[in-house]
């Protein structure tokens, strides 16, 4: 075959190939609360299931908003994993640090536990509609008593943290500040609701 034809065919194939954007910066969420909410551990145990994510937040792309109702993603920046997945160890470590539960599990194959915490990531985005830009983090939690599948309490938590710079990395710094605040609030909520539920159950036994 004529060498010129081979070169032209190669150029044509290259032009038809999809262009892949290389992600040059990968970031993680790893900030969590270490606050204690109990003077000593109790006999209660907790299972934390893998957080789910609403539509649009199920990928490792870093999202931002510059127009109302429109989500966009940074081209060369991404999370190392889905943000919802990265929340799991942060919640587990924060609740372990709460000093209330004698056992915290995140495995669905774990043995019987007293309570289960289900979570859903509703929003995680850098909001450029605000000046300076801010991170919007919204998570829903549902606490369930396992033995009778009884819903104990649920709540939607919202955290907003200002970004030190209007850049993707500024968003990462703010996002980690938001997860630290969020895990503190969720831990306090879970411990408080379990205490109330346990005390209520004990009162019913005495009646």
CATH architecture: 3-Layer(aba) Sandwich
Strand content: 25-35%
Taken from the alpha-carbon principal axes, the silhouette is elongated
Mean pLDDT: 89
The biggest beta sheet reads:
9 strands, mixed
List the quaternary state of the chains. single chain
Question: How many structural domains can be distinguished in the coordinates?
Answer: 1
Helix segment tally: 3
How far apart are the first and last residues' alpha carbons, in Å? 94 Å
What structural category do the secondary elements indicate? alpha/beta
Poorly predicted runs: 3-20
**Over the alpha carbons, how many angstroms does the gyration radius reach?**
23 Å
State the fourth-level CATH superfamily.
ABC-type transport auxiliary lipoprotein component
Q: How many beta strands in the DSSP annotation? A: 9
What series of H and E elements makes up the topology?
HEEEEEHEEEEH
Please give the share of residues in helix: 25-40%
CATH class: Alpha Beta
Description:
The protein is of the alpha/beta class and 207 residues long. It has a single domain (35-206), classed as 3-Layer(aba) Sandwich (Rossmann fold), CATH 3.40.50.10610. The chain is 33% helix and 32% strand. Strands 1, 2, 3, 4, 5, 6, 7, 8 and 9 form a nine-stranded mixed sheet that branches. Strand 8 and strand 9 form a beta hairpin. Helix 2 (83-97) packs across helix 3. The longest helix has 39 residues, at 168-206. The radius of gyration is 23 Å and the shape is elongated. The relative contact order is 0.18. The model is unreliable at 3-20 (pLDDT under 50).
């Amino acid at each position: 075959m004529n060498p010129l034809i081979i070169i032209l065919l190669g150029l044509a194939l290259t032009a038809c190939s999809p262009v892949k954007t290389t992600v040059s910066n990968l970031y993680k969420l790893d900030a969590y609360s270490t606050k204690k909410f109990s003077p000593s551990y109790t006999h209660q145990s907790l299972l934390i299931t893998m957080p789910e994510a609403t539509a649009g937040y199920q990928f490792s792309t870093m999202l931002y908003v510059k127009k109302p109702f429109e989500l966009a993603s940074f081209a060369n920046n991404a999370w190392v994993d889905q943000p919802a997945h990265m929340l799991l160890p942060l919640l587990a470590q924060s609740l372990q640090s709460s000093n209330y539960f004698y056992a915290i599990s995140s495995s669905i194959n774990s043995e019987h536990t007293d309570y289960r915490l289900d979570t859903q990531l509703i929003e995680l985005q850098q909001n450029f509609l605000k000046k300076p830009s801010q991170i919007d983090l919204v998570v829903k939690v549902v606490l369930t008593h396992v033995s009778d599948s009884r819903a104990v309490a649920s709540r939607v938590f919202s955290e907003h943290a200002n970004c030190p710079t209007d850049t993707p990395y500024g968003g990462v710094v703010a996002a980690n500040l938001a997860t630290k605040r969020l895990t503190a609030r969720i831990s306090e909520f879970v411990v408080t609701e379990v205490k109330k539920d346990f005390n209520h159950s004990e009162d019913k036994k005495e009646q």
